[in-house]
From TrEMBL:
Its main location: cytoplasm. It comes from the Eukaryota. PROSITE patterns: CAP_GLY_1, CAP_GLY_2. Keywords: Chaperone, Cytoplasm. This is CAP-Gly domain-containing protein. Coiled coil: none annotated. Residues 188-230 form the CAP-Gly domain. The keyword Iron does not apply. It holds the Pfam family CAP_GLY. It is found in: Cytoplasm. Belongs to the TBCB family. SUPFAM superfamilies: Cap-Gly domain, Ubiquitin-like. The keyword Cytoplasm applies.
């Protein structure tokens, strides 16, 4: 009887992001590193103390997968893949004491940004000097690359909707959904949503709305016949409406 052995790569490329920040730093890590040692490596990058860290694994779309909360486990124990994100959440403490336990009657010592900048030997100065975290060249390059990609995506979406006409027949293809036929009813931006969208009135009740989003109407149709999708998922052409009454 032959034996089969599954071989996976020994390293994984992960982007570390701190709580509340949009961009992070991508680095290569060995899968056999223990989580506690992984946290120690992230201390200088994030400014959080390893003992107070919570690590959250996110996929390429930044959707939450799991918490990496067992310090004795190896990194490879968790479903890490190239391009995934590790969000570092730090406990809110002052000198190791939870904020909720600090006497509210004690006057806090605060510095303005200008006063803090004049001080020497601060964590910020240390990071700037060694080009760590958000002051690293890699971080700056990542930010610029993300901005370029975001702008290119917007320009592509704008170009695509520019080639679509209201009233055109179209086909909508989305991963995990059946192909739907319909009519283009709106092209442009949606209030509070990033990028550009195409409003479609479907031939069947396979949509999510009636042409309105968050109380604002963009076109008129029956409930569940309307939908808003990204331009790259819409193809305009000769897609005649199917006759559902045919036997």
């Amino acid at each position: 009887m032959s034996e089969f052995q599954v071989v996976t790569q020994s390293y994984v490329n992960l982007t570390t992001i701190s709580e509340g920040r949009e961009y992070g730093v991508e680095k290569r890590y060995p899968k056999d590193i223990k989580i506690i040692d992984f946290k120690n490596k992230l201390e200088m990058m994030t400014g959080f103390v390893s003992s107070g860290m919570t690590l959250r694994l996110l996929n390429k779309d930044r959707q939450f997968l799991c918490e990496m909360n067992d310090d004795d486990r190896m990194l490879g124990f968790y479903p890490c893949e190239d391009g995934y994100y590790v969000e570092v959440v730090g406990s809110k403490t002052v000198l190791g004491i939870p904020i909720g336990e600090i006497d509210p009657n004690v006057q806090k010592f605060e510095l303005t940004d200008e006063e803090y900048a004049k001080k020497r030997g601060t964590i910020k100065e240390f990071k700037q000097k060694l080009k760590l975290g958000q002051y690293s060249d890699q971080f700056a390059d990542t930010v610029h690359q993300k901005e370029r990609e975001k702008q290119e995506k917007l320009e592509k979406e704008k170009s695509l909707i520019g080639s679509m006409s209201i009233g055109s027949r179209c086909k909508v293809s989305l991963v995990g959904h059946p192909t739907r036929l319909g009519t283009v009813m709106y092209t442009g931006e949606l209030t509070g949503k990033p990028g550009y969208f195409v409003g479609v009135k479907y031939d069947e009740p396979l949509g999510k709305n009636d042409g309105s989003v968050d109380g604002k109407r963009y076109f008129q149709c029956s409930p569940n016949y309307g939908g808003f999708v990204k331009p790259e998922n819409v193809e305009c052409g000769d897609f005649p409406e199917e006759d559902f009454d045919e036997l």
